[in-house]
Design brief:
Strands 1, 2, 3, 4, 5 and 6 form a 6-stranded antiparallel sheet that branches. Helix 2 packs across helix 4. This protein is of the alpha+beta class and 164 residues long.
């Protein structure tokens, strides 16, 4: 009897998580990305450093960098492993942050997409699935922390201006 109740409960949790993953992108992001913030007045390197600092504080490790992108990873929680079936190989959370220039030299859009990864680092079996928008607010808050971290820092001089 207890086993049947547990199976029903886990089925409901999986169904709810699946339905939540079918929601549309958040309004206001304007990018089709999972989470996004506009950052003005700072260099790309300052935005990169602040982004790394926030994600590391949240338990992520910088896994890769590329042209305009930072990839962060961390092991998924035990609950996520139970719900999403990562018992054998373990699940990982992967966030791909992208820093896109918006017109001027010091205006950027910092956006992020989040994925669940099974069989990480296995060239044949690795499977990456985009997380649903139900947990999007967590990543939006992290990007807002990046912006807030930069606020007390001096702004970079504009084009044609000299640093004082």
């Amino acid at each position: 009897m207890k086993r049947a109740s547990l199976l029903r409960f886990l089925s409901l949790v999986a169904l709810a998580a699946g339905l939540a993953g079918c929601q549309s992108s958040p309004t206001g992001a304007g990018t089709g990305k999972y989470a996004a913030v506009e950052i003005s007045g700072f260099s790309r390197s300052a935005v990169e450093m602040a982004t790394e600092q926030v994600f590391v504080k949240e338990g992520y490790k910088l896994a890769a960098t590329g042209n305009q992108t930072l990839v962060f990873e961390r092991p998924a929680s035990t609950t996520q492993n139970v719900v999403w079936g990562g018992w054998q190989t373990g699940l990982w959370d992967r966030v791909v942050a992208k820093i896109t220039r918006l017109g001027s030299d010091d205006d950027f859009l910092l956006s992020a997409d989040a994925y669940r990864v099974q069989s990480k680092d296995d060239s044949i079996l690795e499977k990456e699935s985009k997380m649903g928008f139900a947990v999007q607010s967590k990543y939006q808050e992290m990007l807002e922390k990046v912006k807030k971290l930069l606020e007390p820092m001096p702004k970079s001089p504009g084009i044609g201006e000299e640093a004082k």
